[in-house]
Amino acid sequence: MPGEIFDNQGRGEASWRWPPIHPEGRKFGAIAGALCLLTIIIGWSWLAWLLAFLTAGVLAFFRDPDRVVPQDERSIVSPADGLVTLIQKVPPPRELTLDDGSGTKPLSPEPVTRVSIFMSAFDVHINRAPIGGTVRRVIYIPGRFLNADLDKASEENERQHVMIERPDGLILCFTQIAGLVARRIVPFVKPGDIIASGQRIGLIRFGSRVDVYLPHDTEPRVVLGQKVVAGESVLAELGEKRLIEGIAQ
C-alpha cells in the first residue's frame, strides 16, 4: 500500500504485483489498442500482431511502479531509472545562476559535479525528486532533439530545470532533457509546491536523460556504467567526498 513503512528489520509487507500504468500513458495505450482491435475486425492479422506488440510496449513504457525511498536526510536519491553515462565537473546551467527576482538564492557559477543518467526506451520514465523540500524554480527551455547520451545535449536539447530548496536552505537542481525520440517533457510540479524525497515530479516521453547537479561538498556514490533506480538508488550523501571504484564483469 502507498506510504507503508519498510525497514531492514523486516517491518512492512511486500509482494510482487503488476506495476500500474501512469494516467499520462493510458490514452496512448487506448489508441494503440483501438487500432489493434480495428485491424482484427478488418482481418489484417499480420498488422494486428504488430499493433498488439506496440500496445504492450506503450503500456510498458508508461509503467509506474511503487518505490521504497530511503528516509535519510543526507541521501540524494536518483531522480531517474537508467544508466550513469557521465560524471563531470561543470558549471551549472546559466539559467540557474541568474537572479530571477523571486528571492531564492541562485546557484554559484563555480563548477560542481554533474551526474547524468540516460534513460532508454525500456526504462521507467517517471522522474522523482532527489530530495524533499520546496520547488523554487521550474524553467522550460526549447531546443533540439539530439541523442540524449551526448554531452552537448545538456546545452542544446529541449530541457527543463527544476530547483528544490530544503527547509535547512540547501538547494539542489536537476535537469530533464529530451532525447532523440522524446518530444515532450511533462511536469507534475510547479514553483511553490512542497514535495517529499522520491515523489513523482514529471516524465519525459520515449527516451531521454536527467542531469543532477550535486552540492559543492558532495561527491557521487555511483560510478560510470552503473544502473540506478529512481527514488531508491542513492546518488550521493551530503558532505561525503571519497573515491568509489567499480569493475565491469
UniProtKB/TrEMBL annotation:
<feature type="active site" description="Schiff-base intermediate with substrate; via pyruvic acid">
    <location>
        <position position="208"/>
    </location>
</feature>
<keyword id="KW-0812">Transmembrane</keyword>
<dbReference type="GO" id="GO:0004609">
    <property type="term" value="F:phosphatidylserine decarboxylase activity"/>
</dbReference>
<comment type="pathway">
    <text>Phospholipid metabolism; phosphatidylethanolamine biosynthesis; phosphatidylethanolamine from CDP-diacylglycerol: step 2/2.</text>
</comment>
<dbReference type="InterPro" id="IPR033175">
    <property type="entry name" value="PSD-A"/>
</dbReference>
<keyword id="KW-0865">Zymogen</keyword>
<feature type="site" description="Cleavage (non-hydrolytic); by autocatalysis">
    <location>
        <begin position="207"/>
        <end position="208"/>
    </location>
</feature>
<comment type="subunit">
    <text>Heterodimer of a large membrane-associated beta subunit and a small pyruvoyl-containing alpha subunit.</text>
</comment>
<keyword id="KW-1133">Transmembrane helix</keyword>
<feature type="modified residue" description="Pyruvic acid (Ser); by autocatalysis">
    <location>
        <position position="208"/>
    </location>
</feature>
<feature type="transmembrane region" description="Helical">
    <location>
        <begin position="28"/>
        <end position="61"/>
    </location>
</feature>
<dbReference type="Pfam" id="PF02666">
    <property type="entry name" value="PS_Dcarbxylase"/>
</dbReference>
<keyword id="KW-0210">Decarboxylase</keyword>
<keyword id="KW-0472">Membrane</keyword>
<comment type="function">
    <text>Catalyzes the formation of phosphatidylethanolamine (PtdEtn) from phosphatidylserine (PtdSer).</text>
</comment>
<keyword id="KW-0670">Pyruvate</keyword>
<dbReference type="InterPro" id="IPR003817">
    <property type="entry name" value="PS_Dcarbxylase"/>
</dbReference>
<keyword id="KW-1208">Phospholipid metabolism</keyword>
<keyword id="KW-0456">Lyase</keyword>
<comment type="similarity">
    <text>Belongs to the phosphatidylserine decarboxylase family. PSD-A subfamily.</text>
</comment>
<keyword id="KW-0444">Lipid biosynthesis</keyword>
<protein>
    <recommendedName>
        <fullName>Phosphatidylserine decarboxylase proenzyme</fullName>
        <ecNumber>4.1.1.65</ecNumber>
    </recommendedName>
</protein>
<keyword id="KW-1003">Cell membrane</keyword>
<keyword id="KW-0443">Lipid metabolism</keyword>
<keyword id="KW-0594">Phospholipid biosynthesis</keyword>
